[in-house]
Amino acid sequence: MSKLNATHDPSRRSFVQSANRPDTDFPIQNLPFGVFRRRGGEPQGGVAIGDRIFDLKAGVEAGLFSGQAKVAAQAASGSTLNPVMMLDSAHASALRARLSDLLRQGAPEAAPIQGLGGKILAPMADVKMELPASIASFTDYFTSIFHAERGGRVRNPDQPLTPNFKHIPIAYNGRATSLRVSSEPFKRPNGQFRAKGGELQFGPEPRLDFELEVGALMRGNAQGTPIPLSMAESHIFGYCLVNDWSARAIQAWETVPAGPFQGKSFCTTVSPWVVTGEALAPFRCAAFQRAADDPKPLPYLASADNEANGGIDLQLEAYILTPKMRAANQEPSQITLTNLTTLYWTFAQMVTYHASNGCNFLPGDLIASGTTSGPTDESRACLNELSAYGTADIPLHNGEARRYLEDGDDLIMRAHARRGGCVTIGFGDCTGRVEPAVPWPAN
Hints:
This protein is α+β, with helices and mostly antiparallel strands.
């Protein structure tokens, strides 16, 4: 677990003035990693500061780094973050500390950095963001008891939870090749499903949904090597937002007996900025408080430290922006407000369980929390729950309503870590737009 240090000092300000605004996601206390592309250029690594991106390659060329920070900056400056994810956490921490010193108000290097202008501090508005890593494997968990119980009551009112839910963090292997970075649109999937009348048909998914999730990008471990709970956090490079788009009608027809397949494999959207565990250190909190009569996890999934500090106090929001709102230049309509503290299992427990059978992570592998629904109506984190499984309209602020996503809709996810005495940090938007399904080719 990361300890607090000078990079978390709430009084620290940056000479990049946009980083000092109260509404920025990227104050100097954050400094998340990402991969960006300048117009006509190649993908390269950078760090967000206000409305700018610190170009790590340019910083290395300018001789701004030494020691572990230089090794990490070189590793993080290429077309993916995988090389820096191969290093231990001390390297990323050293780079983050050096960047915090370089970018602070009054830093000796402020004038030379500002003198380099856009070469070293690229305007975010002028670049295209890329997937932060080459992701070989994607695992999606199912860890909110509120999400599990609501869905379970539809299928089996007498026993909404599966017998194993309170004993292990349940997951399925997602489709890594379908991962896309925020702002990339995707096609509504075609598939087979039961229509309202019960007949089978093939065509565009009628109940397209989102799932508001948080992801963790991993460092590696050797195959056959378990990761004890006490070491699990050190195997996480950082966190991002994940939208596990869901084709509910296709999923409902196919899931038994082998679990999700085509209902999930068509697209998953990932936010471009990776917020380090160190940046989130001020926002650690106790793990989810289980009911007194719930079974205790087996010893390999339990520790006093995980119970006391395994949670992250992270506010999560989802918005819909319809074509009508876009045409009228209106703000999107908020539909979800929840928190990562609702998860029944911590990320550390997910990591330890994942590797307990000898399964290995490659640097850059992604695990996701599952739908982060909480106990209240506003904290339902997917349209299935918000629309009472397709039976009730979800009112939007402009008078429109939705039960599921329509073609042309944008789904926008945001996250902010807030706490008294701390500077709020954010993740940036995670956005995807639904495009019409591809017309099925004639035989």
